[in-house]
């Protein structure tokens, strides 16, 4: 097995573990007494803010690479990955200490559920895509990095923007 296939397998394993953990936290049982053990009421705003920051960083990173500022692009894309990782940690904490997802009670249920379902599906897909894109850039495999980044960027933007929209619709 070469180095590249080793890291791609690790990325897929990490992606499956993350998606499974998130699904379990939302759908699985909670230990007795865990709900409300800490106040997580501010975390949805933190999550939406992290998604908004990620969106801005992704756009800024795209502008930087279009202007051939490669090192700054790398730094900004790592920062956007960091804010996405921060979101994931905050999201997991929120759902561990709060039972189930918040119910939508607005006037546009079809729109909300379309946004929510596409957000969930693409959020699970963006995990390996973002990791592979970062890996390709980090390892200087620029032709493969460019090819996958053309897919990753719009999907990652969609996930981060719809995360903010979902927050606005729920709160």
Task: Give a description of the structure.
The mean pLDDT is 94. The chain has one domain. Helix 1 (3-27) runs antiparallel to helix 4 and helix 2 (43-66) packs antiparallel against helix 5. 80% of the residues lie in helices and 0% in strands. It has five helices and no strands. The termini are far apart. The protein has 171 residues and is mostly helical.
Separation, N- and C-terminal Cα atoms = 49 Å
What is the overall pLDDT average? 94
Number of domain units: 1
Q: What's the β-strand tally?
A: 0
Note the overall shape. globular
Number of helices: 5
Per DSSP, what share of the residues sits in E-state strands of 2 or more residues? Answer: under 5%
Tell me the helix content.
over 70%
Series of secondary-structure elements, N-terminal to C-terminal: HHHHH
Radius of gyration: 17 Å
Low-confidence stretches: none
Sketch the major β-sheet.
none
Structure classification: mainly alpha
